[in-house]
Amino acid sequence: MADEIVLEFAVLNIVADPHREGVYPSLLRKIAHIPVQLWGDDYLAFTPPRRDAEIWTGRIFVWTELDPNAPAINTKILEELSLEAANVSVPENIGINGRIFNYVLREKDHKLFFETKNEFGRHLSPYRLLKPIDRLFYKTNTNGEMTVTVTVYPEDDALNNILKIKFLNTLEIHLRKPNPDDNDVEAEDILRELEEQGASKKDIKITAKSRKKGITPNHRTRIEAEVAAENGYVRGTGKNGAGEVQDLSTEEYPKIVRVPLAGFASVLSAAKSVARNTVLRLRGRRA
Known about the structure:
By secondary structure, the protein is of the alpha+beta class. It folds into two domains: 6-67 and 94-153 and 254-277, no CATH class; 158-252, no CATH class. 23% of the residues lie in helices and 34% in strands. The longest helix has 12 residues, at 185-196. The two termini are 44 Å apart.
């Protein structure tokens, strides 16, 4: 019996400032069809999003660029030879080792769901994807039109596990401006404070006065940590009850949604179901 195919999806939080209606599909259309380096000789490009009721769908193409000046290798005898001698000819517009991953934009909360493991078992790491996306938005971020930040959404319990470190010695909070339509009163308060000061981000570091007692974050600090977990990152260091050192960061634990392909008519229908039905619960999960 063949192994069951399980798809995996991660979530990116995209925040545009200034924020306007339709900005997120517009941003994805803006970066569509632009090849950008992923890693080494691997490149990727987004297709423009297509509307499907309240969501938008598209694909991420990944391929390997073939350097015509680099030698080929005869793997049987481990000998170097030219591509011409190996009878290899690849047109300039052809990438090899192609991989395709579906993405779905949930516009209402500016979350981009995408395959990190496709039906063929190929992977696309969420944190590896961040640098190419930053490069794609570079011109948007530098020409004064707007700023666009992208964060990998962490596991629901990632922040809670940090705040539950028994003897929390240091707490680092890197907070970027949240989206103004997050419908969270406390997040809006943080956004207002940053805007009043002309700031785009805020770094907070709290250190325990006594390592034996640790830190007890108050309500305000916990709110800032919750917002930062979705818009930045949070890191905590300390010791557990057994005296073992703990060093945890929300960046280390991306949220991964796993679904069996057998329950859907196609990979795209699975992706759309994940985007429509996944509930994200960072806010209000305080230890």
